[in-house]
Amino acid sequence: MKVNLDTLVRDINTLAGKLNIHMNSEDKFLYPELINSRDEQLKQIAKQYSEEMGNIHQEFSNYKNKFNTKTKILSDVDGFLKESKEIIKLLENRISKEDIYLYPKMKSL
Fold first, then answer.
1. 3-class SS letters over 40-92
2. Number of domains in the chain
3. Mean pLDDT of 69-95
């Protein structure tokens, strides 16, 4: 499989920018608001997710800083592949939990 590293690097940096905006908004505004909710179940879910997944933003930022150029990727291809799988799993987990448990609960308010 041939990979265009220029495109891959661009995509990593683009995703980092979008995640920065999205996760900052959730972590600084949405989750604190939900933690102050009158709905006890929603409050508990938001608190748990904030504690459990609040560091994902920083973890992705570290990943991006480590692999945001072709040179960095090529100097540690195995590390890049391993850490890419790990960070994707973290993001998928957060999205899945929010979609399945948090957002439906918010709609019932």
1. HHHHHHHHHHHHHHCCHHHHHHHHHHHCCCHHHHHHCHHHHHHHHHHHHHHHH
2. 1
3. 96
